[in-house]
Amino acid sequence: MTEMESLKNAQRLFHILQAVQRIHRSVDGVSYEMFLADEDKQGNVVRCLEIIGEAANHVSEEICAANPEIPWAAIIGMRNNLIHGYNEVNYRLVWGTVQNDLKELEVRIPQIISGLDMPLDFKFDQSACVDDASN
Description:
7 helices, single chain, 135 residues
């Protein structure tokens, strides 16, 4: 993989991480019932899941194959369902994904980025990936 390919992968992976963290900020301390009653939170979470799926769709096959513990196809499939089935969103499934599936991405994505062959002047700042209410 070239440095340019590594950089593009790092950008897509970072977009995934940012969207995961945005979801966590949006639903922190929120129950499922509160989530169902708040269309703004629903919209934010769905949009972030769409971003995660779109970014995952552009991560190289090489990265996906090297990290089979991440369900890349399911992530992309969820994005497709949310985009194309926008009028039939299953919020129970969305909530389950938020509660059960995002933590692994939050842990693994920085590890994957750190393992990429990046240009010498590129430094992945993991502190930029810490949840911060000021973001």
